[in-house]
Amino acid sequence: MTNHKVLSSGDIKYFVKTRSFQELCQALQSLKGKKGRFLHVLGSPGTGKSANIYNALARLDLDVYDAFLFIDHDSTPDEVYKTFWSTIEKDMGVETKKDVYKKAGEYDLVLFADPFLDSEYIDENKVGLGLWTEENGPSTAPFYFRVLREYLVHRKYLKDLNIVTQTAWVLKYRGIRYDILTDFSVFSQILVFLLKIFFDVVQISYTKEETMEIIKNHPLAVTDEEIKMYIEKYGCRPRFIFEALERNQKS
Predict the structure, then answer these.
(1) Are 81 and 140 contained in the same domain?
(2) How far apart, in whole angstroms, are the C-alpha atoms of residue 93 and residue 113?
(3) For the chain, is the Cβ count within 10 Å smaller at the N or the C terminus?
(4) Which residues have CB under 8 Å from 2's CB, separation 6+?
């Protein structure tokens, strides 16, 4: 399998184990020796879903297929669907969908995270599924309907594999990215409740104390009072705080 790694070594070195991280580790470890599970990893933009996923996998004895996808900004839903399958078939060295499912079942889990959703950070000339969806809006719906149909038609094969996906339903408003599954109070809670009926769910979130610890553990750390000011402005979203610290450091 091609290795597409988004995280740097620093993401491992300065990572802090939080309550959400421990919950994620337990959920992932529970997949060992089992099949037919589907785990959604949720979290507001900036909480570090991928950092938690990859740090957890680095600590666990799991055989993972890390799916990847590189598509063009203006790809049609049909082109994305075909690229999705041709990419996996080529990487796995198989020729049919049935063989993909069979091969995928040999792993402890199949992961859909950064190299699949945010692959523009790996190849600036391409995009991942997340940015493609954000840029093309409602016109991407046919792709997701085809994925749903694929699930309904071939769900008998899914009982033989585990899927873990970094899940977000992003809405951009006035330049700020929100996740409908986590950022809209009661409405988000209802959606997550419904999601939990059908799937396993782990939500990455932090208390203010945990956020303080995460920021203080990094080389960019500032005083406690300054960190509190950043939390007040950006919430408990470490990535946004780190980006702000980097901007201030360069200015």
Answers:
(1) yes
(2) 21
(3) C
(4) 68, 91
